[in-house]
UniProtKB/TrEMBL annotation:
Protein name per its UniProtKB record: dTDP-4-dehydrorhamnose 3,5-epimerase
One Pfam family, short name: dTDP_sugar_isom
NCBIfam families: rmlC
CDD domains noted in UniProt: cupin_RmlC
Documented EC number(s): 5.1.3.13
Upper classification of the organism: Bacteria, Bacillati, Bacillota, Bacilli, Bacillales
Native organism: Paenibacillus baekrokdamisoli
Free-text function comment from the UniProt entry: Catalyzes the epimerization of the C3' and C5'positions of dTDP-6-deoxy-D-xylo-4-hexulose, forming dTDP-6-deoxy-L-lyxo-4-hexulose.
Family of the protein in this entry: Belongs to the dTDP-4-dehydrorhamnose 3,5-epimerase family.
Keywords: Isomerase
PANTHER family named in the record: DTDP-6-DEOXY-D-GLUCOSE-3,5 EPIMERASE, THYMIDINE DIPHOSPHO-4-KETO-RHAMNOSE 3,5-EPIMERASE
């Protein structure tokens, strides 16, 4: 397994060791000892699984307020997505900056999205299944989001036209969003 630091402190790209033979492949999608040895200290307590049936489905940008903020470990088990994280930690030197990653069933990469980051993805092909572990349960009361098309973020989404839920279409701009995450250096 290889753990790659991103330009945003705390965000990590994980490349698992994959064993291939004539039958197919095998890999450990999660191994607590290896992950903790690689600096990933989260205690995951819930697994989530989404299916997006069309290309261009955009989900996000989502986060939960403290004390229910979540660290996520994201992977794609079918299809491919453009996965985006945005630093929303007040006082962070990278506040408001984003980074995008291609996650796919083919590359088997995983993305660690720490607390203090908004997260979203856009499907690159039809029939995408995204699975992610979280270290805190979903809390409707703490659920928040940022507009996926916020011009100050200027995220370079890969689809000319996207399909978003009514909820995601109504998220505020970053400048107007309720955020209680603070950079701790």
């Amino acid at each position: 397994m290889r753990i790659i630091d991103s330009k945003l402190a705390g965000v990590k790209l994980i490349e698992p060791t994959v064993f291939h033979d004539q039958r197919g492949f095998f890999f450990e999608s999660y191994n607590e000892i290896l992950y903790k040895g690689g600096g990933i200290q989260s205690d995951f307590i819930q697994d989530n699984h989404s299916l997006s049936v069309e290309s261009g489905v955009l989900r996000g940008l989502h986060y939960q307020l403290y004390p229910k903020a979540q660290t996520k470990l994201v992977r794609v088990s079918s299809g491919a997505v453009y996965d985006v994280v945005v630093d929303i930690r007040r006082g962070s030197p990278t506040f408001g900056q984003w980074q995008g990653f291609i996650l796919s069933a083919a590359n088997k990469r995983q993305l660690l999205v720490p607390k203090g980051f908004a997260h979203g993805f856009c499907t690159l092909v039809p029939s995408c299944e995204v699975q992610y572990k979280v270290d805190a349960l979903y809390s409707k009361e703490h659920d928040r989001g940022i507009a996926w098309n916020d011009p100050t973020l200027a995220i370079d989404w890969p689809a000319a036209e996207v399909i978003v839920s009514d909820k995601d279409a109504s998220h505020p701009l970053l400048a107007e969003a309720e955020i209680n995450m603070v950079y701790e250096g």
